[in-house]
Specification:
alpha/beta, nine-stranded mixed beta sheet, single chain, seven-stranded mixed beta sheet, 23 strands
Length: 464
């Protein structure tokens, strides 16, 4: 047995230190050092030798002139789930590596088992599990109604054995659940260590590129919510997908953080059922289901997620505080954005939010990041403070400036058409958008220049 020693490795830049450091001297990241065990015999750990051993199986690659490159007969493979294909940019790209991450129990393995069943109809699929036994996988597959056509299951954590089995099966799609459980015999550290995760992922990436295999890696998340292991892992893969949602709720959202072959603005919406994950083709109707009628503190907004317009419901509750410092709670809206809007309303309109607690919530677990929801947030806050309901057939779109002005937003035509399709009769929109282009939609457009004009829409005559 070779001698071993403990080192600390920065998960951001792979810098090594003999002791734990709060701040990495190489990249400046805080609290990024993790403990690892390496072989004592070499100045550099055995990772270099392991890399050579792992990549040797793929064979030596030679440069090819661009004119001699050939397009494969198929470049993308549809997963059969339109919501996932939307996020990927049309499907799995030949020879690409996708990293799927999410909280425990969010539904990652369920989604991948469903994908395996659908792809098995016309592609060879190899499902590699390092966390569950074959019996456990069979139990889940029976619950999901998986037929198992052209689907092979491998329960293994040794990367050398996994590569051998890939060579034997020759799959079109390989799924690894999860990358943190894979280890190499040539590296002294334990499975899940920074070196093991990096080198195992590199071996699978090299195999995917050499043999034109589409690989999906499952990644765990740490207590901060980011992907466990080295940050380099996210740079190595072609696409990084996050599976989001509250486990207490049935809806799940897949969002692309990185995508070399598609947009990073698209989202896919699913609903967790007893038979697995079901696609939600019309998220707007889902988000508006159960919306209260003629109630103060409620306003609808249309936000853009890539090319998809989504109608969301914003709820605000403003009540007198019993504390010296009023509370501010925001769920689905950035907290700093909420404080900015409150400051604008208090300074420009003279509304006393400073003596009230403010609670803001976006229904359905959706997170609104774009500033086009500012006017809707302001209307919900004013409505709750004055106890005057926003008309149920009205939707608000626009960004607020610090002077209280309403600024133009992108994609307004798509937003108002989606609002009209769902039955809204009036839409509050920025005046600047209508000056640049005429928008035709079966809905009354109410242009506003500033937040001052919002008060007219919340008058007692309008709210009745």
């Amino acid at each position: 047995m070779k001698g071993l020693k403990t080192v600390y490795i920065c998960s951001e830049c792979n810098h090594r230190s003999p002791k734990w450091l709060g701040k990495c001297p190489a990249c400046g990241a805080w609290n990024s050092f993790v403990e690892d065990v390496i072989a004592l015999e070499a100045k550099e750990p055995s990772a270099a030798a392991a890399r050579h051993a792992l990549t040797a199986r793929t064979g030596e690659q030679q440069a090819t002139p661009y004119q001699e490159l050939e397009m494969p007969s198929y470049i993308r493979t549809a997963t059969g789930l339109c919501e996932l294909d939307r996020v990927l940019g049309g499907g799995l790209v030949l020879g690409s590596v996708v990293l799927l991450s999410g909280e425990p129990g969010i539904g990652k393995s369920t989604l991948l088992m469903q994908i395996s069943d659908i792809l098995g109809a016309h592609r060879r699929v190899l499902y590699i599990s390092g966390e569950e036994s074959s019996g456990q996988l069979k139990l889940r597959a029976e619950r999901l109604g998986v037929r198992g056509e052209n689907l092979s299951i491998l329960t293994e954590t040794n990367i050398e054995k996994i590569l051998k089995e890939i060579d034997r099966v020759k799959p079109d799609v390989a799924i690894v659940d999860s990358i943190q459980t894979i280890y190499s015999e040539n590296i002294a550290s334990t499975a899940g260590a920074v070196t093991q995760v990096r080198e195992s992922a590199l071996a699978l990436i090299n195999k995917a590129k050499a043999d034109n295999i589409s690989v999906i890696l499952v990644g765990h998340v740490n207590k901060e919510g980011s992907i466990a292991g080295p940050k380099l892992l996210e740079h190595m893969v072609d696409a990084v997908l996050y599976f989001e949602g509250e486990r207490q709720q049935t809806y799940r959202i897949i969002r692309a953080i990185k995508n070399r072959y598609g947009s990073t603005n698209e989202i896919g919406v699913f609903e967790m059922t007893d038979e697995g994950l079901a696609e939600v083709q019309n998220p707007s109707e889902m988000l508006l289901s159960g919306r209260p009628q003629n109630t103060s503190g409620n306003c609808a907004v249309c936000t853009m997620e890539g090319t998809r317009p989504l109608i969301a419901e914003i709820q605000a509750l403003v009540s007198a505080t019993a504390f010296p410092a009023p509370r501010r709670t925001s769920n689905g809206i950035d907290y700093n954005r909420l404080c900015l809007i409150l400051a604008v309303l208090e300074k420009r309109l003279g509304l006393r939010f400073s003596v009230n607690d403010v609670y803001l919530n976006v229904i359905g677990g959706l997170r609104l990041d774009e500033p086009a929801s500012d006017v809707a947030v302001a209307m919900a806050l004013i409505s709750s403070l004055t106890d005057r309901a926003v008309p149920d057939d009205l939707i608000a779109i626009g960004e607020l400036g610090l002077a209280g002005e309403c600024r133009a937003v992108s994609g307004l035509e798509y937003r108002v058409k989606e609002a009209a399709r769902l039955g809204f009769k009036r839409a509050v929109v920025p005046c600047r958008n209508l000056e640049k282009r005429e928008i035709k939609a079966d809905i009354e457009l109410i242009p506003i220049k500033s937040i001052f004009e919002v008060l007219k829409l919340l008058s007692p005559q309008q709210s009745t």
